[in-house]
Amino acid sequence: MLPTTSADANVAVNRSYADRYAIYVTAAQRNATYGHYLRRAFRWKQMDVEYALWQFVTMCVNPKAVYRHTTYRKQTKNQWARDDPTFAVMLAVFVGAAACAWCAAYDDGPPGHSLRVLARSVLGDYLAIACVSATIGWHVANAHLRARTRGERAHAVEQRVEWLYALDVHCNAFAPTFVLLYVAQGALSPFLASPGVLQSCASCALYAVALAYHHYCVFVGYGALPFLDRAEFFLAPAFAFALLTPFAMVLGFNPTRFVLWVYFNRS
């Protein structure tokens, strides 16, 4: 009797090869996208600064309008993330300029200390935190928040959150945070850093609004993806800040004075 193979076995083998090929193609596309993104970060002539400035202003007043463009990008370029790093690079320049302004106002140490504050602000407070926050959001969204539908077809395209999109979400949310905690706080710092109950309450309120709005923008970013459920998870830190702020006010904690002590050793 001749050996025979079942149709189910053939389908399983073909699906296995198809899955391996899909993983290989996806990895190759992802590496190419990251390389293209990093190369464009150093090509100033290819950056669309005007569009990035529009996104910056719109994130401060109407973040949902920015994420309407993600649908158009998915339809035209087959990816949710931006392939233009202008927004991220522009924010790094803004953070560096704000750090220089803070150093000019409050740093009485040697020039080397100002350079360390500048490097810490751009590389640590902005870039490092952006990568960590994007990685956490990317993992949580893919591992726990993707929609699961019953009877899902075997050959349906599986959608996942791109890491670059998670980075976009953090950078977008950082725009209003920058305006409130770098610019507004800097302008009001002579008042906010003064001792007093009113100053402490005002500083706590400023930080509560900035951090709560930051996480609201993160929620809007992940909520714009149609294949994610329970994006409200990203609102949890906003509620935590709202609950902790009254306690900080009662205890007389002043975040502005704390920041000046951390960066410039000012009591």
Please give the structural blueprint.
Layout: H1 7-40, H2 49-61, H3 63-77, H4 86-106, H5 111-145, H6 163-192, H7 197-223, H8 236-251, H9 255-264
Helix pairs in contact: 2-3, 2-6, 4-5, 4-6, 5-6, 6-7, 7-8
What does this structure look like?
The protein is mostly helical. It folds into 2 domains: 1-40; 51-264, no CATH class. Helices cover 75% and strands 0% of the residues. It has 9 helices and no strands. The protein has helices spanning 7-40, 49-61, 63-77, 86-106, 111-145, 163-192, 197-223, 236-251, 255-264. It is globular.
Task: Give short descriptive properties of this protein.
267 residues; mainly alpha; 2 domains; 9 helices
Please state the CA-atom Rg, rounded to the nearest Å. 23 Å
**Total number of helical segments?**
9
| Tally of strands | 0
- Fraction of residues in H or I helices: over 70%
The largest β sheet comes out as: none
What number of domains? 2
Structural class: mainly alpha
Strand content: under 5%
Mean pLDDT score, rounded? 84
**What's the shape?**
globular
Order of helices and strands: HHHHHHHHH
Q: Detail the poorly predicted runs.
A: 9-29, 150-155
Ends distance:
91 Å
